[in-house]
Design goal:
heterodimer; A: 171 residues; alpha+beta; Immunoglobulin-like; 2 domains; 6-stranded antiparallel beta sheet; two-stranded antiparallel ribbon; rod-shaped; B: 867 residues; mainly beta; 7 helices; 55 strands
């Protein structure tokens, strides 16, 4: 039984710093039973594959390929059925395409002032600054007579302060 | 790849390639491929088979394809049966037979042939003690039988022909000598030179129209001698150089010659030498230009060892030496900053920086990141690699593992920690144990060697008088902290090492509690043993113990074949015995060191994928207690087949197999819980002391276990599987999966939790249970190898670091890969990205603000007082 496969690896070349080369692509039959490489035009072939159900995997750095289930008919030679195992899509012609590109590195988030301010510490600092500047303004708005009244009240009922206690102890 | 042509071969015979040379450049040259009794001509441009010829003679095996220099005639020489020689002449263009001749040779042929010159073939006879000189001129085959002892004095044993393709010169190898012979017509041969083995002869290399050169490399004392000769003038030597080489490389195995034209138009030669330890040296002008340790591509076993502790107090000589180096280094750096440095100096600066960088130091660090990876290669070389930059710290080619002159092949087996002195008594260095076998088969006697793990020096070596079938490292230690090892031989006798009365005493004390098991793939059985008092042998050997079979599980060979057996790693630490779910329910893990996972496949499905139908394939997974042989759990996967890869850790097993029905790979998980301790949830019982938490867990009693399992689809085939290991076992685990694409994927164990369900409740979500999906996700960012590939990946080793969050991962194949992983992020240390500058600036700003406001308040207070 001879199996000939047609492949065009749709490598768009937009890989994340990885040049899309067909020479870096391995095509693997049945989990390592046979390994072959794609030719420059994208074709590959496995020879002497018996009739039955087989699995083709593609290993290409930077791309995610779904394994392909290939049924080779024993009754009518040359009849081949193929389906992607990941999403059970039946392939009309045996063209393997990557399902998606793979990015192996996380993108580092750039330094951002807003993200710093949004953090709990940033919010606390913001609130404090706000109080420092807004509170005196609020004090200005209060009627000066009311302040005097309040101060007098304070004097009438003196709160024993810590410094006062110390001064008394010294004397 | 330009083209690929498949040639169907009927017999498993050696195939030969012969490229037809043609004077016209860029013309389509034919490549002749001969296998068995067929010859094919393949076009070198597009790979089309232009002709093929099957010879009619039965059992013909083509030995040589010779192209005649003048015309387009190709001569094919083959051997049929044991004594018949056949010669065919073919038209190179069409493949038609022009002439053919056959001749029977008396005495038979052993099959080794070599071409003497363009019309003389040399063949060895069946006894390997006589040579046939066969001449074929036109159609006539004439031969002459010459006994080797006629021209070689004091020959011992049989000889071998070495493939030296040169005009009129052949090389013969006997057990201890290599002979160079010159062909003198039909009458005989003459010895030109003889070299004591180990020596290697290269193929001949055409340097001019007529002349050919070849090289001989032999050992002279501690050096090797590199000799180049030209065939036209055999009495003289073009080059005779002595080269110093590293003593830990063994003997010369092969040599390949290459030439270059010097500026004065004379020929210079360089040679690539393959050594016994699989390293490659390039020798040119009497020096080793470069060398490569290619033995690292065939790793047998890996072990991690600690580096020495940093010592205080440095000797004076050391300081002086360092001072000069220090000055030199600073001069270089100054040059570098002033942009005056040349490219070489820049490289020197770079290497200086690397050497002085924290990760490459030769001392132990606080986090336990710096370690030595001790590697045993197939050739029998032990090497220590630094985890910082992968450089080789020491290497030792163990003498006992080297092939002896009698051709006995040794094989290295395993490597173990032998002695780890307690870190308070650092008088001695730690040492490692290397166990090997002095012969190819499993009954040949074993050998052991103990090496210092800091320097690689051999401290002790020993040759056993018994074979090595199984090596069992025990947790026991003797008074000098040497770890006890039990070596079981092929007669099921156990031998204790080290052989000291002290070790024996501690061993006898624990003997009744020691059990071991063995997996016999041939007999398809697992057997458990206990140790008896002493050997039944006549000789008094108190370190030898006989074994008694306690239990055996024999799998029916017609239904099941053992595919894999796996146990927990010996040094694994389990932190929590119980698992608390969100609804305050407690499940006790069944944590047993004696848990063995065995998977069997049906014999029809033992082959590759695609060879079995789903109906006839099944996979059975067993969980067995190795002390009692009790099967704790058994599960059958119908329509599943191997290859099976498994990992056992804590109370769970994860295994990978192929599901033929869905035609996808699957990963299954089994978690095993102790039901007998499940009643301890009752608070009243705890208060009244009626719990059995303090009861020892023993394999003698029948365990009451429950099992949870689940399976998921997985996209890739798997080459190797391992699990991360940390110092205390607190950090959550990740599975390390070596995929078919030679990458290593780190998969959280959370994805392999049998409690996953389609719609987890709120409580379960809080606990971190992921909703069930039919396949495991492959997140590209979780490849620990990132955009690198470990070519031909074979094994993954996880080593715990001292820092709990971190595990060290070493992956080997043809390439080596090492990295540091933190499965639940580095929660116990700051990351590398942590900005110390920002922290310092914040502190400084706060201090400044404090001072300023203090001054202000002082001033204000003073003003208030004056008011």
């Amino acid at each position: 039984m001879l199996l000939l496969c047609v492949v065009l690896i749709a490598a768009s070349g937009k890989g994340f710093g990885l040049p899309a080369k067909t020479s870096n692509t391995k095509v693997i039959l049945n989990g390592g039973q046979k390994v072959t490489f794609a030719r420059p035009d994208g074709y590959f072939a496995f020879h002497n594959v018996p009739a039955g159900t087989h699995l083709i995997e593609v290993s290409s750095l930077g791309y995610f390929f779904s394994p392909v289930r290939v049924d080779i008919s024993a009754r009518n030679p040359g009849h081949i059925q193929a389906a992607l195992t990941e999403n059970r899509r039946v392939l009309n012609e045996l063209v393997l395409e990557p399902l998606k590109e793979e990015q192996y590195y996380e993108i580092r988030e750039p330094f951002n002032v807003m993200s710093l301010l949004k953090s709990p510490m940033g919010l606390m600092v913001g609130f404090m600054v706000l109080m420092v500047f807004v509170m005196p303004k609020m004090m200005e708005n209060i009627d000066p007579e009311e302040i005097k009244q309040a101060q007098e009240q304070m004097r009438n009922s003196p709160v024993p302060s810590f410094s006062g206690l110390l001064a008394r102890a010294n004397s | 790849m330009i083209w690929e042509t498949n040639i169907q071969t009927s017999t498993a015979s050696k195939s030969l390639l012969h490229v037809l040379s043609s004077n016209k450049v860029a013309k389509d040259n034919l490549v002749l491929v001969s296998t068995g009794r067929s010859i094919y001509a393949v076009s070198s441009i597009d790979g089309v088979i232009s002709w093929r010829k099957d010879f009619t003679l039965d059992d013909l095996e083509i030995k040589q394809v010779i192209q005649s220099p003048e015309n387009d005639i190709v001569s094919v020489v083959g051997v049929a049966g044991s004594s018949k020689l056949a010669l065919y002449q073919l038209n190179a263009k069409s493949g038609e037979i022009v002439k053919d001749a056959q001749e029977s040779l008396p005495g038979g042929l052993c099959g080794e042939t070599v071409l003497g010159s363009h019309d003389v073939l040399i063949a060895l006879d069946q006894t390997r003690s006589a040579i046939f000189v066969i001449e074929f001129k036109g159609l006539s085959l004439s031969y002459n039988k010459v006994r080797v002892s006629n021209f070689v004095q004091d020959l011992s044993g049989t000889v071998k022909l070495l493939p030296l393709m040169s005009n009129g010169i052949i090389a013969l190898q006997s057990s201890c000598t290599v002979y160079l012979l010159k062909l003198k017509g039909m009458d005989g041969l003459e010895v030109i030179h003889s070299f004591d083995r180990p020596a290697a002869v290269s193929d001949a290399l055409a340097i001019t129209e007529k002349d050919e050169a070849f090289a001989v490399v032999q050992h002279v004392g501690s050096q090797i001698e590199f000799i180049v000769k030209v065939t036209s003038d055999l009495s003289n030597e073009v080059i005779r150089e002595k080269v110093d080489i590293d003593q830990h490389r063994g003997s010369v195995q092969k040599v390949f010659l290459n030439n270059y034209v010097r500026t004065d138009k004379s020929h210079g030669f360089r040679a690539l030498i393959v050594m016994e330890d699989h390293s490659i040296l390039l020798v040119q002008q009497g020096a080793v230009v470069w060398s490569r340790e290619d033995g690292l591509a065939s790793i047998v076993d890996v072990m991690a060892s600690e580096l020495p502790v940093e010592k205080e107090g440095v000797s004076v000589a050391n300081v002086e030496h360092n001072l000069f180096e220090w000055l030199k280094g600073h001069m270089l750096k100054l040059k570098g900053t002033l942009m005056l440095a040349s490219a070489d100096e820049l490289a020197a600066i770079q290497s200086l920086r690397l050497r002085s960088s924290e990760k490459n130091k030769m001392t132990r660090d606080h986090n336990g990141f710096r370690k030595l990876l001790i590697i045993l290669t197939k050739a029998g070389k032990v090497m220590a690699l630094h985890t910082g930059d992968g450089r080789i710290i020491w290497s030792n080619f163990l003498p006992f593992l080297r092939a002896s002159k009698s051709g006995e092949i040794s094989s290295a087996l395993r490597i173990y920690q032998w002695q780890v002195p307690h870190h308070r008594v650092m008088r001695e260095n730690p040492s490692i144990l290397v166990v090997g076998r002095s012969g190819g088969d499993s009954v040949s006697p074993g050998v052991l060697s103990i090496l210092d793990s800091y320097s690689g020096e051999e401290l002790n070596s020993q040759r056993f008088d018994h074979s090595v079938a199984q090596i069992i490292p025990l947790i026991l230690k003797d008074s000098s902290e040497q770890r006890l090892h039990l070596i079981v031989d092929s007669n099921s006798l156990a031998h204790l090492y080290p052989r000291s009365p002290d070790a024996l005493k501690s061993f006898i004390h624990e003997r009744s509690n020691l059990y071991f098991y063995s997996v016999d793939i041939q007999e398809n059985a697992i057997r458990g043993y206990s140790l008896q008092k002493s050997c039944d042998l006549n000789l008094e050997d108190e370190y030898c113990f006989s074994t008694k079979e306690l239990w055996s599980i024999v799998f029916p060979s017609d239904a099941e074949r053992i595919a894999i057996s796996e146990t927990r790693k010996l040094n694994e630490v389990v932190h929590t015995q119980a698992k608390i779910s969100a609804d305050q329910d407690v499940m006790y893990k069944y944590v047993s060191k004696n848990l063995v996972f065995v998977a069997t496949v049906s014999p029809k499905a033992a082959g590759e994928i695609g060879s079995a139908a789903p109906e006839e394939a099944s996979l059975v997974a067993y969980l067995i207690d190795a002390v009692t042989g009790r099967i704790l759990h058994r599960v059958t996967h119908h329509g599943a087949q191997g290859p099976v890869h498994a990992v056992v850790s804590e109370n769970w097993v994860v295994y990978h197999y192929f599901n033929l029905r869905a035609h996808r790979f699957e990963i299954a998980v089994i978690e095993i819980y102790d039901q007998s301790r499940a009643d301890n949830k009752d608070v009243m019982k705890l208060i009244l002391g009626k719990h059995n938490l303090s009861a020892p867990i023993t394999s003698y009693s029948r365990p009451d276990v429950t099992v949870k399992s689940q399976s998921y689809f997985f996209t890739h085939s798997v080459k190797a599987m391992a699990v991360t290991q940390t110092a205390k076992g607190i950090t959550s685990k990740q599975l390390l999966i070596g995929t078919i694409g030679d990458q290593v994927l780190a998969l959280d164990k959370r994805f392999l939790d049998p409690r996953r369900s389609l719609n987890p409740t709120q409580q379960e979500k809080e606990e971190g249970i992921i909703p069930l999906t039919d396949s495991l996700p492959i997140i590209p960012q979780s490849y620990v190898t990132h955009s690198l590939q470990v070519e031909a990946l074979r094994g993954i080793v996880a080593i715990p670091a001292k820092l709990e969050s971190t595990t060290l991962v070493f992956t080997y194949g043809v390439d080596l890969f090492y990295t540091r992983l933190a499965p639940s992020r580095t929660y116990d240390s700051l990351t590398d990205e942590f900005s110390y500058a920002l922290l310092l600036i914040t502190i400084a700003a706060l201090v400044a603000a404090l001072v300023v406001t203090w001054v202000w308040s002082e001033k204000k207070e003073l003003r208030d007082k004056w008011r």
